[in-house]
Amino acid sequence: MARSIISFFSFISILSLLTLTPAVSALPLSTSSRWIVDESGQRVKLACVNWVSHLDTVVAEGLSKQPVDAIAKRITSLGFNCVRLTWPLFLATNETLAAVTVRQSFQSLGLLDSISGIQSNNPALVDLPLLKAYQAVVSSLGSNNVMVILDNHLSKPGWCCSNTDGNGFFGDQYFNPDLWITGLTRMATLFKGVSNVVGMSLRNELRGPKQNVNDWYKYMQRGAEAVHSANADVLVILSGLSFDTDLSFLAKRPVNLTFAGKTVFEVHWYGFSDGQAWQSGNPNQVCGQVYNNVKRKSGFLLEEGFPLFVSEFGADQRGTNVNDNRYLNCFMAAAAELDVDFALWTLVGSYYFREGVVGAEEYYGILNWDWSDIRNSSLTQRLSVLQSPLQGPGLSQSRMHKIIFHPATGLCLLKVGFLGPLKLGPCSQSGAWTYSSRKVLTLKGTYFCIQANELNKPAAVGILCTTTNSQWDIISDSKLHLQSKTTDGTEVCLDVDSSNTVVTSSCKCLSRDNSCDPASQWFKLVDSTINTTPTGPILEITSVVHMIEATN
């Protein structure tokens, strides 16, 4: 046994000689209160996508479809700056598995077509040992300025996750805590000095009948200390219980670690996390209930001064899953409001071999089956607003203001022309809005405010903002409707028509009705300190004063 361990570390030492292009600047990362920051102290927002490398082949998916460099370039072209790259524990603890070549791994599963594909697209990888192939993927991402988070997804290679798969919690069939510590230490050591590896997720989705809080503290703190001791540069990312949906126990008992400035917590949030509640319930009520639950179980950590990394979220990108569609609208609003770091599930368009199926398609994948194109361009456009930070250290380009975000489109409300109309457009062109104690939405530095003049007509822009049709209440259980009264007293909500013009319509889905969809009427007032460039001319306050004086 001792000889095996020595030989394995010799193998690790040889692999450590592989160098990666230090393309990512201002690294390593650390934490400053709830923010992740670079060496200069400026916020870095992790806008990641999950790339699966933990299934039966133990090879990053898609290498039979496209060259690894082309995939890395595609990731950056889609606006992501980071990959959460999964790995099975046995890759780091079983030297026999680590030494199996890519070709041998696929041969053992009878995946001859995939071998041909890798031979064609990635000939330099096909005869590498699995661990070296994993390193080569990290290297390619680094060469393309993509940060990497190493995610220990499970122990035994295969699909994840269930309560009874033997990978769920400390002491399960394939989850020996001491072996896990050894694996974390080896991976942290292997990637020490690899500049684009910025973090390590200790374990994905703790779960199952054995899960308990006391063992969570016992082993997660040991794992965190082991990683930091082996590689003090990386962020140490801790997951929660119940498939990584619950960190509520930290409210009463913080983690006790010997180091500071490197701790991040992660949470997962999917539509199916709440069964079919989104489809069977009223969207406003479900959004309000679920979002409050997420804040209670994990969101509170932001207020306590820890970064919260939503390391998995996603939806069926075919657009036909009502449960997922409704969930995603709510998630988008929450993610924008909290300005959290995130990792979309998933990059993968198809798998080599998943749960006995060869070439299984992944409908949550941002790429299509052959990895040649985007599966749903409208979703990637929606995500773009989340990929850039809205506030944080070093990003105070202007005073705090609001952008008026429309989750269903990923666009923001902006004023076009001198007196409107109000349209949806890129959030970078939003302009800075304020929401006063009198509930008036005013374009900052001007007298322009949003008004409701008539039912089913475009929302107006005016400068006399003391009337009731200039007051906007945030209503409904979701807190995503903006309601006012027209000049004749009719209650209306901001809405969007088919041309992305902002209109005032009858408020919908406020009751228990589960058949309607309020998404077009959902707006979120989001804090930002980032400068935006309005599309239309701005009438400054001084200009208005001069205009009024001239008419008297």
From TrEMBL:
Coiled coil: none annotated. It comes from the Eukaryota. Keywords: Glycosidase, Hydrolase, Signal. InterPro entries: GH, Glyco_hydro_5, Ricin_B-like_lectins. One of its GO terms (biological process) is polysaccharide catabolic process. Residues 1-26 form the signal peptide. The keyword Signal applies. Gene3D superfamilies: Glycosidases (3.20.20.80). GO terms for molecular function: hydrolase activity, hydrolyzing O-glycosyl compounds. Residues 67-347 form the Glycoside hydrolase family domain. Belongs to the glycosyl hydrolase 5 (cellulase A) family. This is Glycoside hydrolase family 5 domain-containing protein.
